[in-house]
Amino acid sequence: MTEAGRTLLPWAHHSGAYALPTSILVRLKLGETPASIPAGLDVLRGKTAPASTTGHHVLDRVVRTFGGGIQVSRLHAAAASLRNVGQRNRGYSDDEELAGISRVLRFDVEPGTHIGSLAISLRQLDIVESAIPNYLCTVGLDGPPAPESRQPDPDGWAPRDMIGARQAMAHEPGDRAVIVGIVDSGLKSDHQEFNASALRHGYDTVQLGKGELAGGIELLGDNSGPDTNPTDNYVGHGTGCAGIIGATGLAMPAGLAGACSLLPIRSLGAARFPGRKTATGVGSIGDLDIGTVMAVQLGAKVINMSFGTDDEALEPNATKPHAEAVAFATQRGVTLVAASGNSGDERVYWPAAFPEVIAVGSVALDGSVSEFTTSGGHVALCAPGERIRTAGLEGYQNATGTSFAAPFTAATAALLISRAQRRSASLDPATIKQLLTASATPHRGDIKTGHGTGVLNAARALALLDQALDEDVSTEIEGVDDG
User: 0.90 exceeded by the pTM?
Assistant: First the structure.
């Protein structure tokens, strides 16, 4: 059955949002997580068994009231123990504890459990900071049609020239040590546009199971658990984003991040929805969070997050998705860039709406705001997002959506970091966001508010950074002279 065209699932509480039917994510307060609860990566690899109790009688009692037995594991492994198979629940750092990633537990409950009501009941307990269903996020399900190009673009350079890409790459070629994480549907790693030497070993965090997910949603390919193969064979969404950031430029414009490295993280599986022929990227909140945290733990300095969950689809008063992952990445100095959404109106998607994240909308080649782009006060700026020539599963594609505007901004952030390091300086995420918004080309006068400060200008962002660094050096020299 449907409501306003949206499939309702029996385990959803009110909203009708897709969620895994037997999974819930619970964050306990500091000091309340028993050390013995294993990391989910070890459980899924068969190296240890999940816990059958939370270690808290009141928690276990609430779960039993709703559905019987429980299997408990930690959603995230400790960075210090990623190589310690079977013991990845040991050695969490202070920032992992404070951000909350060490305290997020995945409860796998009995089929038929009303997880929406269970989450609400768990949130009433003093030791629980948050409890949410393991919602499913999709990309492409409600994506925009690909409009006809309003201006000719035979070689794919027009949107890049709009943001000063050639000048930016000539000014700063990028640094191989700067890693851009792409948490998405994976990567077609054997595509001719990707140089193996620029690709880091990635990870696959998808654990959606096999067969039919729900309501006729058919799962495709590998969705069975974490491994080190982030290959995308069905969706092409992550491959398109990666091409904008790091393509070599054989039959399309070179990636804007230049020599920077790519870290593909496959956190969106593949599914075919009823009535649709093409595959859609679909991933649980938990899988996306694992992917984001692992990208940080594996050295990413910038993470592109071209996915999102509509706030209106969530349970009222619940913690917003990805809160712990965003907090952890920010504490580690990682710049997060997210697509604003493709709803065509003013609304909130997560993670784009977190203030620490750079939310990116879409514009056409003539500078007009794309009809599909999501607006709001949280949107930082826009970038080209219509018919962007980039890599695809079968050669190349002309990709449309804010999903493909965000990578231009992520790539520019990587160039800024590369430039700062070349000049023996460092940049924090807040400063990068400030540079990008301050250097953006102002919107046309007929464009309403809610689309950020303007259109990304990569060349001007680098020039503004150089100006700031020159002023800092001048100040330091004056200080020495005064002494």
Answer: yes
